[in-house]
Amino acid sequence: MNRTSTRAALLAAWAALVLAGLSLTGCPSKEPATAPKPTGRTAAVKPKKKGGPVNDTGGFCEATWPAGQRAFEWPAERPLPDGQVPSKALANDRWTWVNVWATWCAPCVEEMGLMARWVRGLEKDGKPVDLQLLTIDKPSEEAALKDRMAKGLPGPVRWIRGEADWEGFLDLLGVDRTSAIPIHALVDPAGHLRCVRVGAISGQDYAAIKAMVSGG
Questions:
Q1: What is the CATH number of the domain that holds 177?
Q2: How far apart are CA 176 and CA 185, in angstroms?
Q3: What's the DSSP call for residue 81?
Q4: How confident is the model at residue 54 (pLDDT cuts 50, 70, 90)?
Q5: Which residues pair with 96 in a beta bridge?
Q6: I need a surface site. Which of 69, 126, 147, 148 has the fewest CB within 10 A?
Q7: Residue-wise pLDDT tens digits, 100-150
Q8: CA–CA separation, 75 and 132 (whole Å)
Q9: pLDDT tens digits along 11-47
Q10: What is the total count of domains within the chain?
């Protein structure tokens, strides 16, 4: 065998050894086997699920309950800037829509106009609701609350008393104590909690709310 043939044979043997080594160890992938899933509104909030779906609301509710399972109760409240404290009585001839908000919460303030239009729309569609606005503003924010109320809101305002009352109310709603506002809760005419949504509403959610308040 001449020198050229010998060199070619050695190169072939070396290549075979390299390929064998790669087959045993494998090549690291430049990308993960599966791409990370996008984080959505419900994934970020991680609410506690309670009960089962009552209506097909297309994922509108984070937590739902069958009729008669969970009675709704207002948290302890402080007097409003005008000194009034709203009655704790719930409407018994229509659904109650509870919106949790604050003057410093931009998404909360932005959706007020949408809620006003929807309340009028539900009334026109024969599905009237009693919209109640529960603020979690601190006592130091009374001036901002008074100013916002003077500008007009789509429903009567209620003012939660303090942090401990807020945490207890979140427990009643069945969502994490770390949940962000706005929060929307729907209470049936019998006074039972039926649906809780964590997050702002948008234009396509009207049908879900109408479907819920149309149910038993």
A1: 3.40.30.10
A2: 14
A3: T
A4: very low
A5: 130, 187
A6: 126
A7: 999 999 999 999 999 999 999 999 999 999 999 999 999 999 999 999 999
A8: 13
A9: 454 444 333 443 332 222 232 333 333 223 332 233 3
A10: 1
- Which uninterrupted H or E stretch holds 9? helix 3-25
* Residues 6+ away with beta carbon under 8 Å from 94: 128, 129, 130, 189, 213
Whether 86 is in a domain gets the answer: yes
Amino acid at 48: K
> For a pLDDT cut of 70, what percent of the chain falls above it?
73
- Domain that residue 78 falls in: 42-214
Q: Which of 34, 70, 38 is nearest to 51 (CA)?
A: 70
If we measure between CA atoms, which residue out of 49, 155, 41 comes closest to residue 97? Answer: 155
Q: Does 12 fall in a domain?
A: no
- Quote the CA–CA distance of 194 and 211 in Å, as a whole number: 12
Is residue 209 situated within a structural domain? Answer: yes
Whats the size of the chain, residue-wise? 216
3-state secondary structure of 14: helix
Could you tell me if residue 194 is inside a domain? yes
